[in-house]
């Protein structure tokens, strides 16, 4: 009995820095061009800024959750973000914006809470919740390309499809990869200081001394790493020619066009259904 091979994204086979993620017919977002996922959600992201009702951002929030639950494999952190962080932040922001709403604008709505001379009206709650939902919908839509795209593939797609100069794209990618490198070196420096028993003590003064002692070795490590990266790029003639041969291609295929068209149609249908601008 033979089993069908599990397909992996091309970035996993060719790029050792890409995250290993198994794809299937269901987790379809991993097999798409990064620019396609960005282009699919971009019109909705822009138009949601000008929405003021409750139903429209709530509908886009539900659409985003549906696409994420079907299209990507959620990690524990991503699941917590979708299940707890976004709903909790929506409620907190909604209540906060309700408190900031001018009571004179909603004085004709029923009062919900009254403390002394201060009154919280239903209209203020509606405005605050609409603002919180709008921000949550924008965040959820941005997670569609964010959770399905790797940094190297996005840079390659920008270079190959948008004709971004590779000197800019790959230089930015190399600089972005400095961040986890710094975190790793900082942890090593902390462990070395802990082994030597340096800067023991508690309180703000001891904490400042510890952080000050981290700066010099961290800066030295950053300079060494930058020199190694620069030498590696020079040895490969980086920037010597206007074009660069790509080791890994990120094609723009029919499935990408289908995703963009489908999401644009769904977005237009939701905006037409709810028409949140009050012109109908």
Question: Can you walk through the features of this model?
Answer:
This protein is mainly alpha-helical. The protein has helices spanning 10-14, 34-48, 55-71, 76-100, 122-146, 151-160, 166-176, 178-196, 204-235, 254-274, and strands spanning 111-115, 118-121. The protein contains 10 helices and 2 strands; from the N terminus they run H-H-H-H-E-E-H-H-H-H-H-H. It starts with 9 loop residues before the first helix and ends in a 6-residue tail after the last helix. Helices cover 64% and strands 3% of the residues. It has a two-stranded antiparallel ribbon with strand order 1-2.
Low-confidence stretches: 1-18
Q: How much helix is in the residues?
A: 55-70%
- Fraction of residues in β-strands: under 5%
Quaternary structure of the protein: single chain
Termini separation (Å)?
61 Å
Q: Give a count of the beta strands, DSSP E runs of length 2 or more.
A: 2
Tell me the overall shape.
Answer: flat
What's the gyration radius in Å?
25 Å
Biggest β-sheet: strands ordered side by side in the sheet: 1-2
Could you describe the largest sheet, including whether it forms a barrel? Answer: 2 strands, antiparallel
What's the helix-strand series?
A: HHHHEEHHHHHH
Helix/strand/pairing class, anyone? mainly alpha
* Secondary structure tally, helices: 10
Average predicted local confidence, pLDDT: 84
């Amino acid at each position: 009995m033979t089993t069908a091979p599990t397909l992996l994204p091309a970035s996993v086979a060719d790029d050792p820095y890409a995250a290993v993620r198994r794809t299937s017919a269901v987790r379809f977002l991993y097999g798409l061009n990064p620019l396609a996922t960005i282009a699919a959600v971009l019109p909705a992201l822009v138009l949601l800024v000008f929405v003021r009702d409750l139903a429209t951002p709530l509908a886009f929030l539900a659409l985003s959750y549906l696409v994420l639950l079907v299209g990507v494999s959620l990690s524990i952190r991503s699941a917590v973000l979708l299940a707890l962080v976004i709903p909790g932040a929506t409620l907190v922001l909604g209540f906060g914006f309700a408190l900031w709403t001018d009571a004179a604008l909603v004085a004709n709505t029923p009062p919900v809470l009254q403390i002394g001379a201060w009154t919280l009206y239903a209209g203020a709650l509606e405005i605050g919740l609409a603002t919180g939902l709008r921000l949550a919908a924008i965040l959820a839509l941005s997670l569609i390309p964010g959770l399905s795209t790797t940094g190297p593939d996005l840079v390659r797609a920008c270079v190959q499809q948008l004709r971004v100069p590779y000197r800019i794209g790959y230089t930015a990618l190399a600089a972005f990869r400095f961040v986890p490198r710094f975190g790793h070196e900082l942890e090593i420096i902390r462990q070395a200081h802990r082994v030597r028993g340096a800067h023991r003590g508690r309180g703000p003064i001891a904490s400042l001394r510890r952080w000050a002692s981290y700066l010099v070795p961290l800066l030295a490590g950053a300079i060494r790493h930058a020199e190694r990266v620069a030498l590696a790029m020079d040895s490969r003639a980086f920037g010597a020619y206007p074009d660069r041969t790509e080791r890994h291609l990120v094609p723009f295929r029919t499935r990408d066009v289908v995703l963009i068209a489908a999401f644009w149609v769904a977005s237009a249908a939701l905006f037409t259904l709810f028409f949140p601008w009050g012109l109908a």
